User: Fold these one by one.
Assistant:
Number 1:
Amino acid sequence: MDFTPLPEHESLRLKVRDFIERQVLPLEADRSNYDAHENIALDKLEPLKAEAKKHGLWAPQSPVSRGGLDLPLVAWAPFYEEANRSIFGPVCMNCAAPDDGNMRVLSRVGTAKQQDQWLQPIINGDIRSAFAMTEPHPGGGSDPTMIQTMATRHNDTWKIHGHKWFITGAAEASHFILIARTSNDKRKGLSAFLFHKDQPGWHIKRRIPIMGPEEHGGHCELIFDGLEIHEENRLMEIGDGLKLCQIRLGPARLTHCMRWLGLAKRCLEIATKYVEEREGFGVKLADRESIQLKLGELAHDIHIGRLLVMHAAWKLDAGDYARKEISSAKIHVANTINKAADTGVQLCGAKGYSKDTVLEWVYRYARQARLVDGADEVHKMVLAQTYRKEGNDFWRWGI
Ligand SMILES: Cc1cc2nc3c(=O)[nH]c(=O)nc-3n(C[C@H](O)[C@H](O)[C@H](O)COP(=O)(O)OP(=O)(O)OC[C@H]3O[C@@H](n4cnc5c(N)ncnc54)[C@H](O)[C@@H]3O)c2cc1C
């Protein structure tokens, strides 16, 4: 593959960079612009969304005909990375999780009618969405074949009973994608549905308190006690729930990586600025080899992450599922953002531990990266299984 960006993608990247630098970072620097859950306050977000739209920096994952930029994945990478130089960036440009993954999957698998009703308002930025899959024990978590939430058919209606948790954004989402069991078939036992927050038959049991800052709408526990979903709001075919998850989660894992690389670079940027200024024992910190080793190692890890992400993006653009490439990128980048935040805090000393920079925010946020959308161990299991099947072909180039 050729890593040279197309001129139009490079100029878009520079526009994102400029937007973040001039409009978002100044706002991020003032804690009075944060909401109670340490995200950008909604009244501050709306004008920035309007600005991003005005500058053509809106919904990079969505079709042009619906108001997006319809970029190939290799062009998402620099866009998302620049966007997440600020902790507030992606949500200002409508490319934050979980809306980002939900828009991508709905624009791929939804019927035209479903897209008009369920996708268009998310692309417009009028509403938010959620993806409800994970369940508490004994339901499905790492292993989706354990999903227990049941969808039972009565003529043209599906009745839902079950329990989900850690559903990001649920407290403020209007449109939900739900994964539920429609049979006991091992591969074809799950199906996907759409529902609106105002439908009766479900409720939020609680917003789960977490260690890090929260997406708008938090991470919620949901109870389904008779939600009725009309057949026209079922996605794909009956039994295609796992397939939909694959279509959604592959690119969604990769866009997480793209954003996390932006945050990792920001940590390195803050730490470097500090050690370039700070002196101790008669020497500038940046001139110490022990400090340079830390900076160099981080730059090296970020570079590896970018290569893994680009390789997977290139394969996805070519129509491949890129399963092992995405798993490799997810493991590496999830660990790199943790290392970047930890190194950043360490190099900035007491200041790193304070709220004077976003390092402590990223430090607390980063820990989820090794759990969400497949824990490290699960992705390593996928790699081991693939290697056992492919042998030395595991490392073949090409599609
Ligand atoms: C902040 C946050 C946001 C989330 N948002 C959403 C959301 O929007 N929608 C949604 O549906 N879910 C969401 N989740 C859930 C997330 O996807 C799951 O937490 C994840 O898939 C792991 O499932 P689990 O928590 O049930 O862990 P479990 O399956 O109980 O696993 C626990 C641990 O066991 C280990 N483990 C598991 N399997 C293996 C294995 N095969 N080999 C070795 N070790 C293993 C891993 O260390 C793992 O962390 C979110 C979670 C968090 C923390």
Number 2:
Amino acid sequence: MIGYEIGMSGQSLVISGEVLHHFSSYRQLRWWHREAGGQLFARFEGNQVLVTHATGPRQTDRRARRFYHPDRMAEQREVDVFHQAGHHFIGTWHTHPEDRPTPSAIDIDSISEAFRLSKHALNGFVLAIVGRSQLPAGLYVGISDGAVLHQLKSLGRSPSHHSALVVLSEDLVS
Ligand SMILES: [Zn+2]
């Protein structure tokens, strides 16, 4: 797992090993690999937002080397299914064919728009972008408040420093 500090909120975002493995398996390491993506679902535990599941890509998504457009109906079905199981939609992920990925203008707009248009109790939506470098170097993680996408700082990969992942207060996610 990898932990990220969520700004000054005192919360941390923790991405499970399973999700990291899923991300890693879709890295665009060859020129013919197409962008992949999906949704992120989390459980809230104290000050931790634990990202336990990453969905996608789906057969019905539209995918190209520098383009990814998810099947919106499938996304809604996933949100319903995970909600029933007590998991919250927390954001989205997709790949980029660059070593250390940075969000495009479209990425920033779409996660901000998703945040503004959705009915939810969160103060931010997560955007994860999977590049070609080994994770976590090749992983961009940011949180949009509906206007600005803030990049999160990695707290490192070691599960043995688990206590360091729990930082302070709690207002970003309720
Ligand atoms: Zn992108």
